[in-house]
Amino acid sequence: MGTCILTIMGIFAQREGIPLEGARVRATKIMAAAPPRRIARCELHFDMPAGIQAQKRPALERIVDSCPVRRSLRPETEIEVTFHYPD
Q: In whole numbers, what is the pLDDT of the chain averaged over residues?
């Protein structure tokens, strides 16, 4: 899911002239304790590069909701997404 989101962000950033080089994502999945075996929670932490204007950040962050991988997960799967900007 993190790679998918970064890919969509990259397409948007290129079109909008937003510097996205160096962006990274750290992902953690937590499996459900009870059967059936499934992902119960997914945590994504995006480390964004410097130089992204504050007014452009919300548009990049909204891209999370358009990720087809995210939309493919079960509705009860908890998803936590955080963005870290260096400035």
A: 95
